[in-house]
Design a protein that fits this description.
The protein has helices spanning 30-38, 65-68, 74-80, 98-121, 132-140, 163-169, 199-211, 222-231, 255-263, 284-297, 304-317; strands at 5-7, 40-46, 84-90, 126-128, 144-151, 171-175, 214-216, 237-243, 252-253, 267-270. By secondary structure, it is α/β, with parallel strands linked by helices. α10 (284-297) runs antiparallel to α11. Zinc ion (ZN) binds at residues 151, 219, 240, 330.
Amino acid sequence: MKREILLCSAAMLSANAALAQPAGGVKVSTQAHAVHEAAIVLDTHMDTPALFSRPGWDIIDRHSVEQDGSQVDLPRMIDGGVDGGFFAIYTPQGPRTKAGDDQARAFGLVRATEIHEMVVKHADKFELALTADDAVRIAGEHKRFVFMSMENAYPLAGDPGMLDAFYALGVRMVGFAHFTNNDFADSATDKPEWNGLSPKGRALLAEMNRLGVIPDPSHSSDAVLGQVIELSKTPVVLSHSGARAVFDNPRNAPDDLIRRLAAKGGVIQINAYNAYMAKIPPNPDRDKAMAALRMKYRGRRLTEADIVAETAERRAILPAIRSLAPISMT
Ligand SMILES: [Zn+2]
């Protein structure tokens, strides 16, 4: 029987209150596990490539969120029945200057190369996917498929034409902005500057449609989301957002836009990051301790031992918070 593709966030597994406990210790219900095993499951936003340059960190080894803050590796993908997903080239937004653009483009190219290096190193377990058919074939060969995506179009250096180069490298989904506005679009977490897409953002969307790159308005403002749904000639994917009707946060989308997204064949993937799902009660002592911790490690190139130590210190401050993904990456 042909397996259907199921879009799902791997992080959601940890939210199951239940029951079966596969080898890796990830608790999922037997029912959820059976669904994942029967379907082709992908996660549409994995920050994991940010870990590929960590000395000694390898995706085929088992890690734990408690120890090093990581959420995805091959053993845990197998535990969760996750067949692949979009591995993100995430670039923090920096200065919108020639120098900033040049640096962002170089950063994006390096990250793209690191994704390719991971796939080459583990060619028996991972394979780059460029089309939906590739994903089906690769999953059928019991390997994990690796789509490449871009979170924040900053590495395009303000030039929609640059998408061609990243497309050639394998990028198939692009998010317009991140925590602050950029030359393409307004961010969900910044003040309106373009009132949606900029002229360059509209040109970028046209390039995405021409090439067959999925537009991803996660992190972009409601105005951007509405305009992308309206203008795009292909379905739109919110790779990691939530529903504002469930929790009022600018990173979450309002119901009317989610309905319009669905009406045009789009998909929303729920972000399981705690701050976007429920109100975290104020706690000045906790905030002070977190600020001190950030200062302690700020500006340092962290070794693996530093990361383990920092994760343990963070966990001591935030014992009840399960997802320890740094806010800068969510
Ligand atoms: Zn994000």
